Automatic annotation (TrEMBL), chains A, B:
It comes from the Bacteria. NCBIfam families: PRK05692.1 (NF004283). The keyword Nucleotide-binding does not apply. GO terms for molecular function: hydroxymethylglutaryl-CoA lyase activity; metal ion binding. Pfam families: HMGL-like. It comes from Actinoplanes campanulatus. This is Hydroxymethylglutaryl-CoA lyase. One of its GO terms (biological process) is ketone body biosynthetic process. Coiled coil: none annotated.
Amino acid sequence: MTAYGVTPLSGLPARVTICEVGPRDGLQNEARPLPVEVKAEFIERLVDAGHTVVETTSFVHPRWVPQLADAEELLGRLTFADGVRYPVLVPNERGLDRALALGVRDIAVFASATETFARRNLNRTVDESLTMFAPVVERARREDVRVRAYLSMCFGDPWEGEVPAQRVVDVAKRLMAMGCTELSLGDTIGVATPGRVAALLGALTSAGIGIETVAVHFHDTYGQALANTLAALQHGVTIVDASAGGLGGCPYAKSATGNLATEDLLWQLAGLGIETGVDLRKLIDTSVWMAERLGRPSPSRTVTALAKENR
Amino acid sequence: MTAYGVTPLSGLPARVTICEVGPRDGLQNEARPLPVEVKAEFIERLVDAGHTVVETTSFVHPRWVPQLADAEELLGRLTFADGVRYPVLVPNERGLDRALALGVRDIAVFASATETFARRNLNRTVDESLTMFAPVVERARREDVRVRAYLSMCFGDPWEGEVPAQRVVDVAKRLMAMGCTELSLGDTIGVATPGRVAALLGALTSAGIGIETVAVHFHDTYGQALANTLAALQHGVTIVDASAGGLGGCPYAKSATGNLATEDLLWQLAGLGIETGVDLRKLIDTSVWMAERLGRPSPSRTVTALAKENR
């Protein structure tokens, strides 16, 4: 997949870890949930393609996300591969109990930078949600379980408009002080542009948050995800969230469609000579296979181009 | 359209000129040509949105591009606005005569960086095509008509694979030595990544080509167009080609779909505080209107997001 040449760009990292969010973030929004065996095969295909971090599912109450009500059954079917992390979303201590019982070693909690989205997504204020997560994070860390903190609406919020960087920094600092090991900055409605990305990353590092703990989670709602990713890489970020085939979005955010497609990200990283360990061809085959199961084509430009070319 | 904030990124230009290629490059590939009055309205809407460069049509023989066989009638219908340039594609001296007779003051010639594409698109070698264009450019310049030179396949070619930067530099130097006033670097099949862009721009400026004369023309086939644009802006480029609603591609290049959508570009530039003079709302209205006429939705992410939101 490097037939068109590899040319590095100075100042970029040599290696990027992709956090593949397709099975959880990608599928949590489906009108008709997929059978658990399809989800298990999806995850195994993603690992076979070379992914080392695959977010598998969520222990949010099935009333809120019925699509992932099979979390326990799904985890029971997986064979955890060596060197691969399988984070699951955990909203509270009960969720953590269930996850730990199934051998989970990586969890994720999800906070919001804005009050409106915290209320809509978590039915709590930002403060209340942090209070809810604190004992989860503390206990997870005691068990040596890694904790990724998602922070939503880091750039704009459909109800509140522009989100000030300082607001994001404040919540981020509290999450990291709580013991979270990684911070994923979500542009939940896809409105960011590269200057905003650079400014926010600068504010976070100035506030003492290590860039090596920061992931970016861009949505392609306005086509900006890869340009924003480039700006983040230029700022030293080495962890990028993406979703195979561009699956998913957020069910509670207006116009929040379009996770960055892992294939489009891979095309960029491969061309830049940045190592990921992920095989683009295998990933495209997986996304084509998933598109057949969902009954609709992938929105990924790269999947569209290469699926067409080779079939 | 700046509800989500403007944040500049250091090292970028304060102003970018967009070369809107929708009416020519966008429509030359349509299975059913549009009525001439729709094309004229399209161009007038683009100018009303604030565009100062709108590529209108082509004097290529109608046998090759029947979609633009109405070039003379279309130009006759336009009222050329002050301060707006309306370049037309001109392949030879006969085309130049026809264009000059209609008051055209900006033309474009189109060359290829690769032999295979020169043969397929122009039925000539690269040398032969340059020989064909030389007298066109010379006479246009004598008449004080500006000449944009398109250079196709600057990064990859579906038949030849990776295209070396030196090959592009060689052809570019000959075009500029001939008297062309602007050079548009085409990633005709959309395979470039930001390192390639920076390397090619570096090679061109090292060869003495002024960055102020260089435009970039990216295709979004693999989702890379805006990230590549960012890399070009970081290298000093101030002219960017784009197509309203992402119309078009190239009829002769395998998998060459997806001109960069002007709306996606505008979202990025507006967020970066880079002036263009183009009104995003008016442009989206125009692309929605055009999509109705073509009977299919725009592939632009920004058009999709905002057309959905506000209707």
